[in-house]
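Lecture 7 notes: from sequence to structure.

We start with a single chain of 185 residues. Read the sequence below before looking at the structure.
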Amino acid sequence: MEYRAGDRVRFLDFEGEGRVTAVLPHGLLEIEMEGMRMRVTSGEIVPVEAENIEVERHLYDGNSQLSRFKQHPDRPQRSLPSGKKAQCREDVMEVDLHMESIRQRYPAARNVGNGDALYVQLDVFEKSMAEAFRKGVRTVVLIHGNGRGVLRSELLRRLREYPGVTVRAASALRYGSGAIEVSVR
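Now the structure, written as tokens:
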């Protein structure tokens, strides 16, 4: 399929939608998604032709993981989460700020050098916090890892600017010493 600048597209390997900003040589496209620009091949995306997201989901049902969920009937929710489902509670958001994880999730970050990694990590942090506030998430776990402490100290400095949040060390049993937990009131 041929794409033009301005076309709406959806990614096959992760959730998200963006717009084509430029058609590049060798089958590459430049896509803008949530303020980030990334280069992808045309095989990594599908066009979004519908105005309504529900209509679009039906158009590409076979190309996404949505079809797996539609094959299984909804199970009744238990009053208390148990086992692995306890990790997937909607009131807790885990944000992995390791560059390897960011590069896998955001194709635009694949070309970012180590010198600019901190800026990308902080950008992901800011966008994740905005999403948490928008969705009403009560707890955000920021997994920063153990290093020289530059990212951790910058996260703590920026979190002081957020109204109504409290910060503490995350569970050492679950995350080790490389994570902080942010409670949103």
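The CA atoms of residues 126 and 172 lie 24 Å apart. Keep this in mind for problem set 3.
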